[in-house]
Write a structure and sequence with these properties.
293 residues, alpha/beta, Rossmann fold, five-stranded parallel sheet, 10 helices, 9 strands, 42% helix, globular, binds thiamine diphosphate
Amino acid sequence: MTQAVSDKPANAAEIRELEKRAFAVRRACLESIASLGVGHVGGSMSVVEVLVALYFRHLRLDPADAKAPDRDMFVLSKGHAGPTLYAILAEKGYLDRELLSTLNRGGSSLPSHADRLLTPGVDMSTGSLGQGFSAAVGIALGLRMDGPRPDGTLRRCWAIIGDGESDEGQVWEAAACAAHYRMDNLIAFMDYNKFQIDGSTESVLDIRDPVAKWEAFGWKSLRVDGHDFAALDRAILEARKAKDKPTMIVLDTIKAKGVPHLEGKAESHNAPFGPVELAATLKALEREEAARG
Ligand SMILES: Cc1ncc(C[n+]2csc(CCOP(=O)(O)OP(=O)(O)O)c2C)c(N)n1
């Protein structure tokens, strides 16, 4: 059985706890990539805070029962950020921490892209961009058809898509469908880190004003700093109150956030990252964490 989640804004002490979690998750994720020597550093680092906010505050889950029948469901549609999800699942107790060093090796239960048949706590296999978001819409519809929990709340589906992923036409078919069916149990995030595999999102296919786009598709849409826990928490609480509409929270993020030599650079997408880069990055992260007190 899952426990109800708080509907109060996070206080200062709770925000500080989330920051500490983000530090731990960032470190665990980077250590797992460094053990392999290469990986999706950029898009994994830009979603650390949103995943921490979801898994440590807003998703209704039971880590002791990955398939709890009353749980919320989550789809990491930009499935190449799997390493961050695995670090989160390890922090939550779904996975043994030692498994993280098997990332993307033959026979591992932690492939580069999320796989629901291999990893406890993963609800949807993703990696082919666009498909996860369609699945999230179908899941949310199914959860609503199942009816509310005994306490009257509806199970939600949550999803994260990339800004480059939004070049997929399939994203916009799913968007239209979710608005048509007034799916207020679907809350999604666009990781607007401004880069994709081939360069800046603006140069590959300009998304223009993402909030206006989502609103035009019939969604409630908000835009916040995706690395600011207080802002994230407020936006998610607002989305949880939405009626008759799905919500898209556009996250202003920095690709490779926290990795000094790759931050905000297109080459961070799938980058060489070994023990030397790890050591320099951890030094910078530890300095930043110490400055927070
Ligand atoms: C259908 C499909 N086409 C191409 C790819 C290869 N691919 C992997 S990641 C990526 C770029 C995605 O950009 P974005 O969504 O902005 O990811 P982020 O910057 O957040 O990592 C591409 C094209 C894929 N996984 N799926």
